[in-house]
Give the backbone structure.
Amino acid sequence: SDCMKILVIGGGGREHAMVWKLAADSRNPALFCAPGNAGTAEIAVNVNISAEDIDGLTAWAVENKPDLTVVGPEAPLCAGLTDAFQEKGLRVFGPCKSAAQLEGSKLFAKDVMISAGVPTAECKSFTDPDQAIKYVKEQGVPIVLKADGLAAGKGVFVCSSLAEAESAIKETMISKSFGDAGNTLLVEECLTGEEASILALIDGENILMLASSQDHKRVFNNDEGPNTGGMGAYSPAPVVTEDMWPFIRENIFNRVLKELKKRGIVYKGVLYAGIMMTPDGPKVLEFNCRFGDPETEAVLPRIAGDLVPALEACIDGNLEQNMIKWHDEACVCVVMAAGGYPGLYGKGDVISGLDEARKLGKLVVFHAGTKLDNGKVVTSGGRVLGVTALAPDLKGAIMLAYSGVSMISFDQAQYRTDIGAKALKPVF
Ligand code: AMP
Ligand code: GLY
C-alpha cells in the first residue's frame, strides 16, 4: 500500500513515547515496534525480535521494507545497526557505528571533547588497576570513576570515600562486572551543580536543539540511593536559562561535530548531551547517541505537530530550525518501578487502574516494563510505567501526573514523590 511504514526498535518507555508520537503523525504511518511492550501493542504491531539482534532486524526489514526505522537504545547503534540497514538500502534514524562511539566509548568521547575544546571534567584513563588506585589516592575524594564501554548505565561511580573508589576499581577492572567495557577506566574530576539533558537533532551539519529536560537518576527522593535508568523527568528544565542556548550550541554541539568531521565521521541522528551547570558554566558529563529515557517521555509530548519530517531531514541532510514546533505546556513523567529496582525485583504482577488514569485528560501512561499475559497487562521489567502529564506549568503537570500515579497499582510499586520538585525552587 502507499501507507508509510515505520519500524521503532526497542521496548521501553522511550519507545512507547516514540510510537505514540509517530502514531499521531499527519501521514498516519503504519507502526511496528521490535520488540515493543504492552503499551506499544495498542498502537503498533509488535515484532518479536530483540533490539540487539542486528541480523534478525535486518532480515525483517529487508522483507517488510519499512520506509523509516527509528532506533531507541544505544546497543544496536554501537553494534552497527545503522550501517547494516544502510547496506541494504534502508533508511534509518540513528548514527552509524563510528559516530555512536561518542556513547560506546567514554574514552573516545573524552578525546573528542578535549580535541574540540568542549568544556568537560578533567580526566585520566587507566588500564592497570594499581595505577588507577594510586592516582585516585593522589587526587583524593570526591572522585568519579567510569568504565569506558557500555554498562547499561551502571558503569559510573561517584565516590565520596577512597574505600568506595577502590571497590569500584576492583569491580570494574578485576572482577570485570561489565566485561570488556571495564578494560579501560576513566578517573574524572567530580563536578558540582545541577544537571540537565539537552538533545539535539543532527543531519550531519545542522543542529536542531530540542527542549531542555531533567532526569532523576537516583532511586529515592532527594536524590538518594543507587543510580537507576531514571525515575522520572520533566521538561523544560529552568536551570537551562535563555542565555545558555547559544553557548551550548556553539561550544558543545558544533565543536563536537567539527571534530568528528576532522576524523572522517558524520553524525546523523539525535545527540544527547548530559550537562552539569557548574559555577564555571555548562560542562559535558556524557554524550549518548540516542534519545534519553525517560527524557523522551517528557519532551516528545511537548512537540506540536509532526516529528517524521525532522527525522527524515536528519537522514537527508536538510534539517531546518522550524521543523519542530513546541507547545507552551510543561511535561512531567513519573516512573513507577517494581519494588527492589534497581536491584532484584519481581515480574508478572497485574497492573490495575490504567484505564481510569487515561480519563484524566492530558495524561498518558507510557509503558516501559510491561507485557500482555492472557489479555492482562503485567509487569515485566524494573521500570514499569512512565505516568506522563502536560499542563500549563510544571506545578500543574506534577499534580496531574501524581493524580495518575495514585490511580494505578501493582504489587510493590515504588516511585519517587518529588519528581520535578527541584524545578519549583529558585535556581540561585
Ligand atoms: P552517566 O551515566 O555518564 O550519565 O553518569 C551518571 C551520573 O553520574 C550523571 O548523571 C551524574 O549525576 C554523575 N556524574 C557523571 N560524571 C560526573 C562528574 N564528572 N562529576 C560529578 N558527577 C558525575
Ligand atoms: N536518562 C538517561 C539516559 O537516557 O541515559
About this structure: The radius of gyration is 21 Å. Residues 153, 215, 230, 288, 292-293, 295 surround glycine (ligand 2) (CB under 6 Å). The chain is about 30% helix and 30% strand.
